[in-house]
Amino acid sequence: MDAPQIAPLMNLIYDEMELTDLEDVPGPDLLKVITAAYRTRTYLSGAATTVVAEANGQVVGVAFGYPGEKEDIVEDVITRLTAKSAAFDEPLEADSETAPGEWYLDSLAVSPDHQGKGIGRQLLRALPVYAQRDRQSVIGLNVDFENPGAMKLYERMGYEVTGTQMIGDHNYYHMQLEIGQPVRIAN
To answer: I need a labelling partner for 3 at 20 to 30 A (CA). Which of 20, 46, 77, 109 fits?
Structure first.
């Protein structure tokens, strides 16, 4: 996994979220923290799953998710990394975003140069395998009220609005997709 290629894509999401806790953090310092997170076992294949789309050897899209009950473990990575960084006045504490009993798609980002080419759909189509591997039959996500393009994509992929929630300073629709019974993997 190439963390330095993943970090700028994830940073696109942080920029869109306009989190007040990040407005005084220099961009390069935030990228260092995100890069460090994507080098941890927790983010790559531990509590969470990182899926990438590549074109010509470059990461052009990334999806990051985990079973909702592992949210605290996953969020602790960023809290610990920001606590160690002088660029952060205090450790970054994330709002809870998951609903009970779901595999949560925390982040989906596609390089601006590759948007509109089906990469987001491709990443979304891959997620049920990971959710079922983690014994989950529902995938959940949050989409900003101010992101109608993403909302349309999720609706086309079968996600339905199940509620709303405030994350940072923005309102989000919580959406879910029923994917059926988890696959039983023989040991």
So the answer is: 20
